[in-house]
């Protein structure tokens, strides 16, 4: 009687998480602080008013603020919506 060894190949795949992107809000001298807060809350429904105020104040003080970090499609959507409301927004890869 002979014994045969059968090797089983691993068929599992390693999933890499999708790259994430930062949506940035840039300060401007045109829109009121109240308008920016409302635009942020309208664009990113998960933001609370205090969070939107913090983002607006950071952009006002530092010239730029992080709005949200998310997948590319969502980042592009949020960035475009902010631009459509007259705000200056960009996206960049989250390293």
Report what the structure shows.
- By secondary structure, the chain is of the alpha+beta class.
- It is 40% helix and 22% strand.
- Strands 2-1-3 form a three-stranded antiparallel β-sheet.
- Helix 1 crosses helix 2.
- The protein is rod-shaped and about 85 Å long.
- The relative contact order is 0.26.
- The model has no long low-confidence stretch (mean pLDDT 92).
What is the succession of H and E elements? EHHEHE
Strand order across the largest sheet: 2-1-3
Q: End-to-end span in angstroms?
A: 59 Å
Q: Name the poorly predicted regions.
A: none
Category from helices, strands and their pairing: alpha+beta
Instruction: From the alpha carbons, calculate the radius of gyration and give it in angstroms.
Output: 22 Å
Give the integer mean of the pLDDT values: 92
Q: How many distinct beta strands?
A: 3
Estimate the helix proportion, in percent.
40-55%
Bulk shape: rod-shaped
Helices, by number, come to: 3
Task: Tell me the layout of helices and strands.
Layout: E1 20-26, H1 33-43, H2 49-62, E2 64-71, H3 72-84, E3 88-93
Antiparallel strand pairs: 1-2, 1-3
Helix pairs in contact: 1-2
List descriptors.
single chain, 3-stranded antiparallel β-sheet, 95 residues, 22% strand, alpha+beta, 3 helices
């Amino acid at each position: 009687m002979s014994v045969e060894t059968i090797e089983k190949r691993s068929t599992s795949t390693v999933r890499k998480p999708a790259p994430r992107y930062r949506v940035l809000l840039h300060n401007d001298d045109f829109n009121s602080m109240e308008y920016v807060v409302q635009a942020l809350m309208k664009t990113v429904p998960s933001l609370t008013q205090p969070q939107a105020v913090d983002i607006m104040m950071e952009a006002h003080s530092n010239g730029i603020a992080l709005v949200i970090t998310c997948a590319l499609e969502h980042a592009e959507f949020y960035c475009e919506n902010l631009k459509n409301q007259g705000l200056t927004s960009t996206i960049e890869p989250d390293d």
